[in-house]
């Protein structure tokens, strides 16, 4: 029979291990691309570039511009993604897709307003 104290210790070790693995995964996700320009450090305007990575579950898209900058774009639930006038979900976006992204200033933050897939 398992003692309650030993069971609690085993649960603690398991949860600690899971937390450690999860935090390492988040750190790896952020460090994959050097020189990333986060959305709030971008300027409002229109940018064109190529999708180099997508994290659909975190709603993040990394876009490399012609100037070599990598923009980290955070898609909100109301972000509009269109292709030839049809609205698409973020899941339809693929690595290598060419995009035109319109960023706007809202209060003190920069947000993705519109995303067009460019052929």
> Into how many domains do the coordinates divide?
2
What is CATH's topology name of the largest domain? Answer: OB fold (Dihydrolipoamide Acetyltransferase, E2P)
Strand order of the largest sheet: 1-4-3-2-7-8-5-6
Question: Please, what is the CATH homologous superfamily of the largest domain?
Answer: Copper binding periplasmic protein CusF
Strand content: 35-45%
Q: Whole-number average pLDDT?
A: 80
Described by strand count, sense and barrel closure, the largest sheet is:
8 strands, mixed
CATH class of the largest domain: Mainly Beta
- What's the number of extended β-strand segments? 8
Distance between the termini: 65 Å
| Secondary-structure class | alpha+beta
**Low-pLDDT segments:** 27-31
- Estimated radius of gyration: 19 Å
Query: Percent range for helical residues?
Result: 10-25%
Shape verdict: elongated
Helix segment tally: 1
- CATH architecture type of the largest domain: Beta Barrel
Along the chain, the helix and strand elements come as HEEEEEEEE
What does this protein structure show overall?
The protein is of the alpha+beta class. 24% of the residues lie in helices and 43% in strands. Strand 2 (45-55) and strand 3 (60-65) form a beta hairpin. The chain has an eight-stranded mixed beta sheet, with no helix packed on it. It is elongated and about 65 Å long. The protein has one helix at residues 4-31; strands spanning 36-38, 45-55, 60-65, 70-74, 80-83, 86-88, 98-106, 109-118. It folds into two domains: 1-31; 36-118, Beta Barrel (OB fold (Dihydrolipoamide Acetyltransferase, E2P)), CATH 2.40.50.320. It contains one helix and eight strands.
């Amino acid at each position: 029979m398992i003692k309650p104290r030993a069971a609690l210790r085993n649960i603690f070790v398991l949860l600690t291990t899971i937390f450690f693995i999860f935090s390492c995964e988040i750190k790896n996700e952020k460090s994959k691309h050097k020189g990333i320009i986060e959305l709030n450090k971008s300027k409002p305007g229109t940018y064109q570039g190529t999708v180099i990575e997508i994290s659909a579950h975190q709603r993040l898209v990394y876009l490399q511009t012609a100037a070599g900058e990598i923009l980290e774009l955070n898609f909100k639930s109301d972000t509009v993604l269109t292709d030839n006038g049809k609205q698409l979900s973020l899941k339809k976006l693929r690595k290598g897709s060419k995009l035109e992204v319109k960023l706007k200033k809202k209060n003190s933050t920069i947000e993705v307003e519109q995303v067009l897939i460019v052929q």
